[in-house]
Amino acid sequence: MGKPEISRRSLLKHGAALAAAPILARIPKSLRQQKAPIIVGSGEHTYEVHHDWLVPPPGLVYGDTHGLAVDSLGHIYLAHTVHPTSASSDAILMFDQKGKFMQSWGSEFRGGAHGLDLRKEGHEEFLYHCDINRRVIVKTSLEGDIVWQKGVPTEPGVYKSEKEWCPTNVAFAPNGDVFVGDGYGSSYIHRYTKDGDYVKLVCGPGSGPGQVNCPHGLWLDSRDGTPKLIVADRGNKRIQLLSLEGQHLGFVTDGIRMPCHIHFNKKGEALVPDLDSVVTILDKTNKPIVQLCDGAPSDLRNAPREKFIPGKFVHPHSAIWINDRDIVVAEWVPIGRVTLLRRV
Prior knowledge:
It is a single chain. The protein is mainly beta. The protein has one domain (8-264, 309-343): Neuraminidase. Helices cover 5% and strands 40% of the residues. The chain is built from 3 helices and 26 strands. It has helices at 8-12, 16-24, 29-32, and strands at 38-42, 45-50, 65-70, 76-80, 92-95, 101-105, 113-121, 124-131, 136-141, 146-150, 169-172, 178-181, 189-192, 198-205, 211-212, 215-221, 228-233, 238-242, 248-252, 263-264, 270-274, 278-282, 288-292, 316-321, 327-331, 338-343. A 5-stranded antiparallel beta sheet has the order 1-2-26-25-24, with no helix packed on it. A hairpin with a 5-residue loop joins strand 11 and strand 12. It is globular, with a radius of gyration of 19 Å. It starts with 7 loop residues before the first helix and ends with a strand.
């Protein structure tokens, strides 16, 4: 880019006020001065909306804010593609549970940081990245040290070239195996061991039961005691339940538009960020409880910041519970936006 890289150490030396400066400069003054809280939802699912809650440090400018994960200490990890104007190329950022920036790394993910999931294995925790630029799955430590990296799987014989493969998200079986959704490639779901060895092809493309179209997000559903793979079958505008071997078990369509991912809390509620401008919470039976910050129909993806509507989402791409009460949402917009929904 013609600009010097900014080291992690130099970024960490700056305070929280400076960290907020780059993005706050792009937020209209009228929004920054807004005092009355924006309240959404109802009953036990009532939230205050705090847009731009996670802000990048000086020298780093958000691109599309794609993936979120939280570790056992409450640290929040964000994957973004990095804006073309950004001096720093770091694509993975870590914040504390109060939203304060802690560190960043991952310049190799610039332009491709997408799916981000975390799993505890023994006494350690690891991040699993899906890079849609380099078309790879990467397992790293929480500090960014690479454990393994995998490109197009040749074992099932379904790909003629690497360009037909583009992984978007992963999920974890009870034994640690990794399910990978080829959401932006040819719409297959694959299974690997936690060490990166290929296991099997789980399912393939289509619109029928047991078939998927852009399996954009995956999660393990063990709420009834029987582990299942729950898939954000975005191209088919539904959520699909599969056995761990790939057999169709059911669809969820009520309240679902273009689901991107799924995340459960300890109560068994499912959080669904939906690209069609809304975040939906489902109960244990997958019925909608509430839909939050519904901004549809939205044509604001490429709009300047001042056009964003307070209390309304543009394109939710990832959402997580950070403490079984509060929700963090990352949006697919080229200037990035991460929102906190703080439960009232």
